[in-house]
């Protein structure tokens, strides 16, 4: 593991990513208590550009709300949507992939047809439909993103399990009397973890992008301040107040970039062999 | 006439490697028409020196000292363009794994024609006809078909022939052969060795032949260089080095060559049969779907034998003979299609669920690959206790037993807290053996258990197995492709070919008076048989006893 | 009431038609948003359909910005003394776009057969009509069962489009092939519709008014994204941005462009009126004090300035100031957070989370809902926005599944046509988002509505409607917001674009481009 | 080969059928129905009118009947009738399909070509500043929201610089024909196709780079060098061809995303394709159109997959000869 971190740290991009992400996490965790301005409160005249009004470093939006407050509160939501939806996607994808890969045969066939089926539907369109059905609350946004993003997990885990299950130590475990559940959880999955971690870090990034795209089309939770919402709301005033689109856009870009850099660093560190699988 | 000379060559490894130099202070000379064998175990630097000759060192590895003189020029000082002109035309090279050494997406003909193209020789049409001649010359059965084929359509031996054809296309003065037969079956190996030998004669070509196998050396070499840890430890004419090795390392290597003899083989036929196999069959169907018929492989075809208590049976065969599938059928890692596997009156082949689990602990396996047979995320302690614990042994008791087992297989008991990657290949294989023993089985199936090990380690592990077997009164099925290994450890030998048992009998009989042509061919193909005889004459003892 | 209005209207036409100056020729490019589902106005009457098909189909009358009738397919008309017989004299020499003659039979077929089946809003009006007859080819007589005050206001093209009998008689109207190539009598003919891209209309050379229309071609461009629509105007691809086609936030910037004019005229007939439904059926909003607290908590002037660019007016009650019989002097419903807090104090509200449905019609409405939520939170409410799409909004409003919900409706020039429907008890029924959704019940007011609709005297009606407006504002069944001002942005050299109460829906007949 | 394609087509048909059924239930689970929306737009307050509309649309039938009728129709390539748009769904989609195909295929080609070229360049300069630059740019594009790039591109190239049309399919009212029209469409295509393609360019670039580096470590590359081949030839003939195999696989998998990405791109650039049609249909609960678009986009994804499968077979003899 130590060696892994050394390899990770050698990757300059990954370190930059780690610094940015840490910053975002700190903002998300400590920002709201330290900067308690309600991001929905209309505090000043609309469309104040950044750096022009005291107390409002990033200016105000179309309703005179504090952009900095939005950015800080939005960090929390974007990260949460990204993380939670990834966790949920893993909770679906890992068991599906593990069962398919381990048992093979008709189990594999059935699960993989199921997965393929979800992969064939354009995922973004599926997310839209799901939100149209469930109504865009934070809960359903996370669920929808998870539902469209688990198939790659299942495929990756299946591939890993498929190759791991023919390893001799798995055969040894069979001979030593362990049952399938023990073998999957003790012998197989721990060895797939590094690939899953890499994929997960990239999925968090993708989920943040997906959330912002949905918000852009007006499918965000209207009660929760998120970066995606800020862009969606500001795009109508792109021409007159470009910074309202620009600032949260940069926030998303940096966070997603950081996650991707970290993912790449993790990939190099954890499984150099699998350099191209994480996509 | 010396055509190639290496002087004081040192090759540096990148930072962080386990030693600073891959090759240190190596000097050698190569005369026209001679075969020079470089022998050594893995990590000895034998391949590096050859690669340096071609200017094909891996990234980060570079020569730091010395010179390589070819036709009056120092190749280490030559620029890339000059080296390129040299490669293929003056020096050809073939590799260990012919499948991965050929571009999977190009036809054989095109890959050979490329050699001419690289040196701007011949017209495209002439290149093809020349390629055809070459394929003919290296003895491919149907050159016209082969030239249009893709690598995956040829067998391993055929691919290596293609590689040789390619390397010889421009009639180079030097051929570098880097373990060219290691990945091949023994009969194929014999053919390829003969081919290289013939070509050398015909063309008066010098060959640098890199190998770890003294049998091969004995069959082919004019001169031998033995390398250890990047240095040359011994050098001389083949006969001298092989029969009168001076350096202890060389002596150790030679002593480790497995072979028949050893302890007297008892006839254990009188003991009760602990395992009775009757009419075992396994058929694989691959591919196949709605629109295509599946490919059917009869991997195990009607296998029948008894294993007696305390007996070791060797199952011998080339790749694809079904020997490993047979072993896996017996422990039900693979479900046989039909047949009975009776162990103490219970038919393993028809058990399932808890019954299977309860009986399976009596028959355990030792695996081939020391790297993939231990879970890299588990401590040795856990690896050794998982089995007993899942059969109900309390963890503490299992752990105490694990410590004992480790000492039994020659490792320190403190290893329980360490992870597999902290051990060498041989040590790992010992852990694998300890694991098999942890469940106190009656029968051990060793599937190519020493094939991946260097020859000196191989000898140690074989000795360990022999000791354990005696101490614990185990019965053993020893699956191997190497007749010499089988000869050393087995009481009886089963020879398999394409799923069928072609011969079965006592080790002595099978090895000295085989009945079946195939067994005979296998025996013939073992490299260095003459040498072993000579060695026996010279030292008066069988190799493995010294 | 036996008036012949024609001369007056002729004067109006002359007034908007300078003796010199109109130049024939040219192509006018407009934005259409969203893309209409169909151009057959007899079947589909939504906004975009009316805007495009208003050039293809005509009705008997048009209306000026004070909602006075003007001739269209009818050149003059009389109303009998008792208010029960309406006689229309039709233009002569009118031809359908396929060359057939237009006759009174077409009018009878349209109103009596076709629209009775297909036009929900007109159907309600036609309930008052006993018979429709064509004594000759150029005369149509409508006989009513009882007097109906607003009847003469229903001959607008979107309300009563005249469709060709020779094409539709005896067919399945909704699935007639010809719906895709509409045939009307209007100044422009349908030429081509590239779905998702544009609709192309060409000049009707045989139009019955000599010299009109002036334009040769009209393109309606389908540009789904509001920002792109703004760009289209800036880059010169389109010349006209009808109301609602760009986000309000973009309006100030666009109006500052050179050669750009803006008007919020042309909506008088519709009188778009916005309010917030309050659920009088159940929950906290059943308490009048809570409703008053909401009403006074809303900073409508901020919304008007920040979201509507100051276009439009603060609503004073249920009737828009552009609708007939508006009463300006109703009880105050002004923004007063302190007063709101007082009412809230008195109310039975207990901190329940109110569900507020924004209108899913774009960013302006979304922002407005956010601002309103903040206003309400400021006086002590707990409010949660519920995001929906159009269908989800329809469903929840129709099922009374909300506490507060934004909406706006057209008033069609007369309280009896467009206002009473959302306040009378007989219009309380689940299943439609457009009826008395709030569940306002006041039998006395219901009686007044009835009386006012049946009266034919404008003075009597004014009295009744004033009374109604005062009573309803007193009860605050809904929170009135703004009389919406929809700006039409156009190049200043496009002349006479908006000359009637329905604006550019039928404006292209008279429009011309100054070169 | 024909067997292979037949097998794939059969599989695709099964998947499509399953998609039809699932979508049908998903979408019917949504609140709201088209009758209510239509009645609303017509300003109807009339209960009877909505009931009539429902009856006309068959919405009063049991769900199973609606599903059965729909699937029966779909089997005959009849995707139903859009009551909102008053025309057959198949025709609506066919009207728009060429625009979407043009956009997505162009984006697909742009991204593959640019991505592979950039990937090869980066790989051949591994560790150098060229590699760093290309990789960094790709990483940034990969991390940027698609719609945001679209907005910025439209702002910059159309509004500020005025170089390219910022929206639409062709210059409306210009009535170009023949080549001029083609060029006009091409000009309109540049921004949306590039924007849509950029994200995928980044993916293909990273993929190609990684794959090239991996392949260049394989034995046959060493063989090629041992033959004395020039680096350029080795790069092209040996490394690139083998490195493209995983890129092709990925391209097939990404097809679905390109179709999905078209919704955003078509929205921002007012491109009259099915992506935009779908978004409108969802808003209006135009079930038949929605189902139709789903059907067609899934079919498009399967088509892309089939194309990449065939490409794979063409490139890789191992699969070609075995199948």
From TrEMBL, chain A:
Which CDD domains does this entry report, sorted A to Z? TM_PBP2 (cd06261)
Chief location bin: membrane
UniProt-listed SUPFAM superfamilies: MetI-like
Keyword list (alphabetical) reads: Cell membrane, Membrane, Peptide transport, Protein transport, Transmembrane, Transmembrane helix, Transport
Q: Which segments constitute the ABC transmembrane type-1 domain?
A: 75-263
Give the subcellular location: Cell membrane
Membrane-crossing residue ranges in chain numbering: 12-35, 77-103, 124-150, 196-220, 241-262
Topology in the lipid bilayer:
Multi-pass membrane protein
Gene3D superfamilies in the record: MetI-like (1.10.3720.10)
Protein family: Belongs to the binding-protein-dependent transport system permease family.
Which PANTHER family does this entry report, sorted A to Z?
Answer: D,D-DIPEPTIDE TRANSPORT SYSTEM PERMEASE PROTEIN DDPC-RELATED, OLIGOPEPTIDE TRANSPORT SYSTEM PERMEASE PROTEIN APPC
This chain belongs to the protein called: ABC transporter permease
Native organism is Paracoccus rhizosphaerae
From TrEMBL, chain B:
Cell compartment(s), UniProt: Cell inner membrane
Q: Which InterPro entries match?
A: AAA+_ATPase, ABC_Ni/Peptide_Import, ABC_transporter-like_ATP-bd, ABC_transporter-like_CS, Oligopep_ABC_C, P-loop_NTPase
SMART domains in alphabetical order: AAA
Q: Which GO terms describe its molecular function?
A: ATP binding
Q: Does the keyword Nuclease apply?
A: no
SUPFAM superfamilies for this protein = P-loop containing nucleoside triphosphate hydrolases
In what residue span(s) does the ABC transporter domain sit?
4-254, 275-523
Keyword line: ATP-binding, Cell membrane, Membrane, Nucleotide-binding, Transport
Parts of the chain that traverse the membrane: none
- Mode of membrane association: Peripheral membrane protein
Which family does the entry's similarity section mention?
Belongs to the ABC transporter superfamily.
Protein name, please? ABC transporter ATP-binding protein
> Which species expresses this protein natively?
Paracoccus rhizosphaerae
Supply the source organism's classification.
Bacteria, Pseudomonadati, Pseudomonadota, Alphaproteobacteria, Rhodobacterales
UniProtKB/TrEMBL annotation, chain D:
Q: Where does this polypeptide localize?
A: Cell membrane
ABC transmembrane type-1 domain ranges (all copies): 97-312
Question: Cross-referenced Gene3D superfamilies, in alphabetical order?
Answer: MetI-like
Q: Name one Pfam family in it.
A: BPD_transp_1_N
Q: Does the keyword Lyase apply?
A: no
Entry-linked InterPro entries: BPD_transp_1_N (IPR045621), MetI-like (IPR000515), MetI-like_sf (IPR035906)
Protein name as it appears in the record: ABC transporter permease
Superkingdom of the organism of origin: Bacteria
What's in the keyword line of the UniProt record?
Answer: Cell membrane, Membrane, Transmembrane, Transmembrane helix, Transport
Among CDD domains, the record links this protein to: TM_PBP2
Q: So what family is this one in?
A: Belongs to the binding-protein-dependent transport system permease family.
**Membrane-spanning segments:** 12-30, 101-124, 136-165, 185-205, 243-269, 289-315
Membrane topology, record value: Multi-pass membrane protein
């Amino acid at each position: 593991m130590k060696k892994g971190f050394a390899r990770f740290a050698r990757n300059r991009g990954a370190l930059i990513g780690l610094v940015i992400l840490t910053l975002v996490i700190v903002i998300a965790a400590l920002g709201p208590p330290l900067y308690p301005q309600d991001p929905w409160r209309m505090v000043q005249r609309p469309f104040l550009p950044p750096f022009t009004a005291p107390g409002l470093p990033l200016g105000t939006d179309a309703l005179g709300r504090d952009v900095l407050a939005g950015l800080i509160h939005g960090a929390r939501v974007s990260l949460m949507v990204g993380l939670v939806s990834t966790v949920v996607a893993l909770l679906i994808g890992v068991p599906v992939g593990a069962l398919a890969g381990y048992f093979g045969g008709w189990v594999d066939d059935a699960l993989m047809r199921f997965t393929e089926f979800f992969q064939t539907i354009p995922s973004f369109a599926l997310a839209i439909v799901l939100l149209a059905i469930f109504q865009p609350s934070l809960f359903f946004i996370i669920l929808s993103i998870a539902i469209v993003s688990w198939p790659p997990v299942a495929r990756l885990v299946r591939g890993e399990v498929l190759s791991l299950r023919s390893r001799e130590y798995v055969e040894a475990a069979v001979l030593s009397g362990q049952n399938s559940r023990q073998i999957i959880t003790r012998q197989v999955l721990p060895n797939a973890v590094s690939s899953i971690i890499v994929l997960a870090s990239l999925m968090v990034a993708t989920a943040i992008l997906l959330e912002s795209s949905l918000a852009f089309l007006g499918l965000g939770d209207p009660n929760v301040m998120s970066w995606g919402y800020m862009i969606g709301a500001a795009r109508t005033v792109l021409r007159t107040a470009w910074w309202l689109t620009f600032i949260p856009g940069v926030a998303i870009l940096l966070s997603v970039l950081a996650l991707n850099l970290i993912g790449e660093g993790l990939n190099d560190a954890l499984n150099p062999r699998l350099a191209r699988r994480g996509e | 006439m010396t055509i190639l000379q290496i002087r004081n060559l040192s090759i540096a490894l990148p930072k962080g490697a386990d030693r600073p130099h891959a090759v240190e202070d190596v000097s050698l000379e190569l005369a026209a028409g001679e075969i020079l064998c470089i022998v050594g175990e893995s990590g000895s630097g034998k391949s590096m020196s050859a690669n340096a000759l071609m200017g094909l060192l891996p990234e980060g590895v570079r020569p730091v000292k010395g010179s390589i003189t070819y036709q009056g020029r120092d190749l280490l000082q030559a620029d890339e363009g000059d080296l390129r002109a040299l490669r293929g035309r003056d020096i050809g090279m073939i590799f260990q794994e012919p499948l991965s050494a050929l571009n999977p997406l190009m036809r054989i003909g095109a890959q050979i024609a490329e050699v001419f193209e690289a040196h701007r020789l011949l017209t495209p049409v002439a290149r093809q006809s020349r390629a055809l001649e070459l394929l003919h010359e290296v003895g491919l059965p149907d050159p016209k078909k082969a030239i249009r084929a893709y690598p995956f359509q040829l067998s391993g031996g055929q691919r290596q022939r293609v590689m040789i054809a390619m390397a010889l296309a421009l009639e180079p003065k030097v051929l570098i052969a880097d373990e060219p037969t290691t990945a091949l079956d023994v009969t194929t190996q014999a053919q390829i060795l003969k081919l290289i030998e013939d070509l050398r004669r015909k063309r008066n070509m010098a060959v640098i032949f890199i190998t770890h196998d003294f049998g091969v050396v004995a069959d082919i070499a004019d001169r031998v260089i033995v390398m250890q840890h990047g240095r040359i430890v011994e050098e001389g004419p083949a006969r001298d080095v092989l029969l009168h090795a001076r350096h202890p390392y060389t002596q150790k290597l030679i002593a480790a060559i497995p072979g028949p003899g050893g302890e007297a083989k008892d006839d254990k036929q009188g003991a009760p049969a602990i395992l009775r196999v009757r009419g075992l069959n396994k058929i694989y169907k691959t591919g196949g779907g709605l629109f295509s018929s599946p490919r059917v492989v009869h991997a195990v075809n009607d296998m029948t034998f008894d294993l007696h208590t305390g007996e070791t049976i060797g199952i011998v065969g080339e790749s694809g003979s079904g020997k490993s599938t047979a072993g896996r059928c017996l422990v039900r890692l693979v479900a046989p299609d039909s047949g009975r596997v009776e162990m103490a009156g219970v038919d393993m082949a028809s058990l399932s669920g808890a019954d299977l689990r309860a009986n399976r602990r009596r028959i355990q396996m030792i695996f081939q690959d020391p790297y993939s047979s231990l879970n890299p995320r588990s401590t040795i302690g856990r690896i050794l206790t998982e089995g007993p614990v899942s059969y109900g042994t309390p963890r503490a008791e299992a752990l105490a037993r694990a410590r004992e087992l480790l000492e039994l297989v020659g490792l320190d008991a403190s290893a329980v807290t360490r992870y597999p990657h902290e051990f060498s290949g041989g040590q790992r294989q010992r852990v694998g053996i300890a694991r098999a023993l942890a469940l106190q089985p009656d029968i051990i199936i060793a599937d190519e258990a020493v094939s991946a090990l260097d020859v000196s380690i191989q000898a140690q592990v074989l000795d360990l197995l022999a000791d354990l077997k005696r101490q614990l009164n185990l019965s053993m099925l020893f699956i191997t492709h190497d007749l010499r290994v089988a000869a050393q450890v087995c009481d009886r030998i089963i020879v398999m070919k394409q799923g069928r048992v072609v011969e079965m009998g006592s080790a002595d009989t099978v090895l000295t008076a085989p009945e079946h042509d195939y067994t005979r061919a296998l025996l013939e193909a073992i490299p260095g048989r003459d040498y072993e005889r000579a060695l026996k004459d010279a030292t008066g003892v069988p190799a493995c006893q010294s | 009431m036996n008036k012949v209005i024609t001369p007056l209207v002729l004067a109006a036409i002359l007034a908007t038609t300078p003796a010199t100056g109109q130049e024939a020729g040219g192509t006018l490019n407009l934005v259409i948003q969203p893309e209409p589902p169909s151009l057959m106005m007899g079947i589909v009457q939504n906004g975009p359909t009316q805007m495009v098909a208003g050039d293809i189909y005509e009705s008997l009358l048009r209306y000026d910005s004070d909602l006075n009738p003007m001739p269209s397919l009818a050149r003059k008309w009389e109303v009998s003394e008792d208010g029960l017989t309406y006689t229309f004299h039709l233009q002569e020499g009118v031809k359908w776009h396929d060359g057939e003659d237009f006759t009174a039979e077409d009018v009878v077929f349209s109103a009596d057969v076709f629209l009775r089946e297909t036009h929900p809003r007109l159907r309600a009006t036609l309930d008052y009509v006993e018979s429709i007859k064509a004594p000759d080819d150029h005369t149509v007589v409508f006989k009513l069962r009882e007097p109906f005050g607003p009847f003469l206001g229903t001959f607008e093209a979107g309300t009563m489009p005249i469709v060709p009998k020779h094409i539709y008689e005896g067919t399945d109207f909704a699935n007639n092939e010809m719906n895709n190539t509409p045939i009307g009598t209007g100044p422009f003919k349908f030429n081509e519709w590239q779905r998702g891209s544009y609709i192309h209309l060409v000049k009707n050379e045989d139009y019955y008014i000599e010299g009109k229309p002036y334009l040769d071609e009209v393109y309606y461009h389908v540009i789904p994204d509001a920002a792109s629509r703004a760009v289209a105007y800036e880059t010169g691809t389109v010349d006209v941005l009808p109301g609602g086609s760009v986000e309000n936030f973009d309006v100030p910037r666009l109006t500052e462009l050179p050669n750009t004019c803006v008007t919020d005229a042309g909506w008088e007939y519709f009188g778009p009126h916005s309010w917030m439904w309050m659920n009088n059926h159940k929950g906290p909003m059943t308490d009048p004090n809570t409703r008053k607290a909401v009403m006074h908590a809303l900073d409508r002037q901020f919304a008007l300035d920040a979201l509507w660019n100051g276009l439009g007016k603060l609503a004073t009650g249920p009737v828009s100031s552009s609708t007939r019989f508006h009463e300006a002097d109703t009880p105050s419903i002004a923004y007063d957070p302190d007063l709101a807090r007082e009412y809230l104090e008195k109310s039975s509200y207990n901190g329940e989370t109110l569900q507020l449905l924004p209108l899913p019609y774009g960013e302006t409405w979304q922002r407005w809902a956010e601002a309103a939520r903040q206003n309400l939170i400021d006086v002590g409410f707990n409010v949660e926005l519920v995001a929906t799409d159009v269908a989800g909004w329809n469903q929840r409003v129709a099922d009374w599944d909300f506490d507060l919900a934004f909406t706006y409706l057209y008033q069609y020039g007369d309280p009896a046509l467009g206002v009473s429907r959302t306040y009378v008890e007989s219009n309380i029924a689940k299943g439609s988002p457009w009826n008395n959704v709030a569940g306002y019940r006041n039998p006395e007011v219901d009686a007044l509505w009835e009386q006012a609709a049946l009266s034919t005297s404008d003075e009597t009606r004014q009295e009744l409607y004033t009374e109604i407006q005062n009573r309803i504002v007193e009860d605050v069944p809904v929170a009135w917001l703004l009389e919406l001002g929809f700006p039409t942005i156009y190049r200043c050299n496009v002349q006479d674009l908006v000359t009637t109460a329905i604006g550019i829906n039928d404006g292209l007949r008279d429009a011309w481009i100054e070169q | 080969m024909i067997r292979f394609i037949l097998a794939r087509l059969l599989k695709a048909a099964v998947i499509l059928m399953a998609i039809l059924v699932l979508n049908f239930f998903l979408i019917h689970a949504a609140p709201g129905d088209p009758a209510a929306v239509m009645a609303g737009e017509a300003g109807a307050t009339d209960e009877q009118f909505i009931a009539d509309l429902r009856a006309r649309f068959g919405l009063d039938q049991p769900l199973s009947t609606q599903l059965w009728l729909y699937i029966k129709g779909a089997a005959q390539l009849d995707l139903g009738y859009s009551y909102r748009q008053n025309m057959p769904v198949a025709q609506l989609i066919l009207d728009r399909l060429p625009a979407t195909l043009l956009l997505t295929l162009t984006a697909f080609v742009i991204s593959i070509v640019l991505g592979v070229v950039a990937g090869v360049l980066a790989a051949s300069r591994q560790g150098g500043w060229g590699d760093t630059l290309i990789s960094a740019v790709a990483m940034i594009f990969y991390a940027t929201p698609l719609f945001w790039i679209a907005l910025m591109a439209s702002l910059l190239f159309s509004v500020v610089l005025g170089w390219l049309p910022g929206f639409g399919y062709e210059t409306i009212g210009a009535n170009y024909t023949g080549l001029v029209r083609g060029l006009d469409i091409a000009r309109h295509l540049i921004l949306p196709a590039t924007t849509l393609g950029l994200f995928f360019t980044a993916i293909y670039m990273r993929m190609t780079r990684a794959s090239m580096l991996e392949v260049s470590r394989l034995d046959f590359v060493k063989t090629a060098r041992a033959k004395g081949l020039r680096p350029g030839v080795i790069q092209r003939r040996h490394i690139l061809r083998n490195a493209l195999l995983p890129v092709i696989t990925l391209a097939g998998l990404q097809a679905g995303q390109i179709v999905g990405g078209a919704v955003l791109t078509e929205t921002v650039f007012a491109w009259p394709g099915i992506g935009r049609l779908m978004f409108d249909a969802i808003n209006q609960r135009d079930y038949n159109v929605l189902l139709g678009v789903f059907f067609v986009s899934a079919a498009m994804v399967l088509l892309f997959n089939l194309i990449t499968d065939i490409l794979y077979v063409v490139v890789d003899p191992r699969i070609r000869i075995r199948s």
